[in-house]
Design brief:
The chain is built from five helices and no strands. It has a single domain, classed as Formiminotetrahydrofolate cyclodeaminase monomer, up-and-down helical bundle (Four Helix Bundle (Hemerythrin (Met), subunit A), Up-down Bundle). With 155 residues, it is mostly helical.
């Protein structure tokens, strides 16, 4: 997702015939949404008398999740850029054997690089699952469904 666009613009672009944004971008956006929901539950927990015993933990989790929001939005942009390089490689000339060889090599290199971004998204998602679990079990129980949606977005 381009963080400077509206969600409506993002959805329009996503449903277009353009190859980007695509699945890698969307998965990173889901990670950012999950992190945001977890942060929201922390904010709804912190400062409440009923949850004073977990306030420090929720504050720490909140700060951690805020960093992940930035990581995921960065990965969304990185995914678009990486896949654009794959598409550029496919546009290389392929008339001669030498051109075909160069094109094949560039496609291969770009594809390998592009595959790294979704792997980073998966790793980051797995890192925040325990944070969302803690928020769901210890955070404001009026918002447990929000933590549940966050967990669903990470699955």
């Amino acid at each position: 997702m381009n963080v400077d666009k509206t969600i409506k613009d993002y959805l329009t672009e996503l449903s277009s015939n353009s190859p980007t944004p695509g699945g890698g971008n969307v998965s990173a956006f889901c990670g950012a949404l999950a992190s945001s929901l977890g942060t929201m539950v922390c904010n709804l927990t912190i400062g409440k008398k009923k949850y004073l015993d977990v306030e420090k933990e929720m504050t720490d989790i909140k700060l951690n999740l805020e960093k992940y929001i930035d990581k995921f939005t960065g990965l969304a942009a990185k995914d678009n850029s990486a896949f654009d390089k794959v598409m550029e490689a496919f546009k290389l000339p392929k008339e001669t054997d030498a051109e075909k060889e160069i094109r094949f090599k560039k496609i291969d290199e770009a594809t390998i690089e592009a595959a790294k971004v979704p792997s980073e998204v998966i790793i980051n998602c797995s890192e925040i699952i325990p944070l969302i679990d803690a928020v769901a079990s210890k955070g404001n129980q009026n918002s447990v469904s929000d933590a549940g949606v966050a967990a669903l977005l990470l699955s």
